[in-house]
User: Fold these one by one.
Assistant:
Number 1:
Amino acid sequence: MTDITLKVDSGYFNYRVGAIIISDNNLLMVKNENYSHYYSVGGRVNFGETAENAVLREAYEETHINFEIERLAFIHENFFAGRFESELSKPFHEISLFFLMKPHDRIKYIKSNSIGADGGKESLYWLPTDKLSDYHVFPEFFKTELLHMKNEVGHFVTREENTVRAL
């Protein structure tokens, strides 16, 4: 299958999913040895794959646990400069769907041996949801929104590290 990252004249479009996995008020996040920030379990959607199937696949690939989806929690439109394959920094337009996952009884046995798209080793970390502001996490809105999750889909737009809640 092919990840949905499309090259256009001015940059790239990327379609991504993320799993929000919470246990005992801790959020499971990924950290790549090549980067300073933590990010959600997840990855790119494959062409012809639904977002739901993609998040289940990505969560399994990174944790070796078959999670179930509770609900769609956030839509994130992200505009940033990034690298893709051998190209230097280019503009990206990324759409991410973040799904809240149902708790799983094997959650305490999660291990990771995944490798990021850049070849860096990825490790899993449990970060306390009430202390996320102490960490460099992405997306930034996790720091506030996970403290008081509403039973609705939040929509956020980030441009140049400035995130706003969309209508």
Number 2:
Amino acid sequence: MRRRTRTLVGAALLALFLAVYALAALAAAVMLQVMDNRWIEVAYYAVAGLLWIVPAGLLIRWMAWAS
């Protein structure tokens, strides 16, 4: 796959992943009822807000990989 095509596919996948991840994190917060305790809510959103970086970084590395 050419780098330009891989970048286009990767960008589309990244946008889709982030949308699905944000909805899943929100649904998990509601199901876990993290709003009951303010400190648990802050910790949950801090972790959930940083957790997406690992798969996004792997996808970006794949997009930048020269063939």
Number 3:
Amino acid sequence: MRIALATSSYAPHVGGVEEHVRNVARTLRERGHDVVVWTIDREGGHGVRDLDGIAVWDLPAPLPARSFRSMLHFALRLPRAALQWRSAFRAHRPDVIHVQCFGPNGTYSRALAGLTHTPLIVSTHGETLADDNAVFSRSRLAVGSLRRGLAEAAAVTGCSLVAIDDLVARFGLQQGRGVVVFNGIDLDEPADDTKPEIDARYIAAIGRVQRVKGFDLLVRAFARADLPRDVLLVIGGGGPELDSLRALAEDLGVGDRLVLPGWLERPRVLNVQREALVGVVPSRFEAFGIAVLEFWRAGTPVVTTTHGGPPEFVHDGEDGLLADPENEEQLAAALRRLVSSSAERESLAAAGSARVTDFTWDRVADAYEGIYERVASAHRRG
């Protein structure tokens, strides 16, 4: 099949949807499908590049705003953007257009699908919930476009039931139309085999350092847990809250035990996860929680949030611990429990290592292939 994956963001940018779409694109291509990626150029430009043997179209996606100046700017840019999206379609003529993480990419893909009578598939990655910029609370255009996209889509998927339920509750998705397709992970991704730079026992958390990820909640719980002095807290990742995390740790008396290495390349991420005593995913909300899969793959016991997708696949006390990160004592107790018990750490780590094999990219591709075939067949009949 000819498949267009229209994503809100793509490599070289780093994040959950970027990893998801890149791995799906590669897996589908390996299965013989003709795959193209359409993504948004953040500078409003246009270009075509090759990544992993797949054509990636960086496209502009101007949208109107309320001010007269913004409307004028949009009117001047729209004709060129429309032509470039149409060129992307004509170069590939996909059998299906699959929107991953609905944003401006979804608005333009929806319009293009309607004009070309191409089946549209929409996949949510929790963008309506884990949204620090509150786009779907502030923008009537974003809400309206998503509602129309869901109504017009031949199929809708979500990375978790909680993400789909939000589309039903707030954006008009018909109950029962959404299908859960969990995220995947590369079980063989290579780690950095050099000796870790952190020569101590430590608890680890990895991700972009922003409010929704809850790293400030983890710092508070770490301080409250009163762990042995030789246990450090490592939070790997860049982001806007690094300085405030440092200040918070100093205020709580654990500044000398907080390690903030900043943004880490993938092999080093895997190394940090593998060598950690405990892994933590303390998000205020996590649509799925791919970091849980990463700690499982690394053979590291994990504590994860009760907010969002993780409770849908983590079995509390069997392959991980669930804790409410906004309940400081509950999260602190989970940290104390694992740091103090090597037997429980080993048990959870072994169960997680076994469980992660259920979350391969082949399984994700299987689910999407089934949807593509059903949608394309219905389109041909109809």
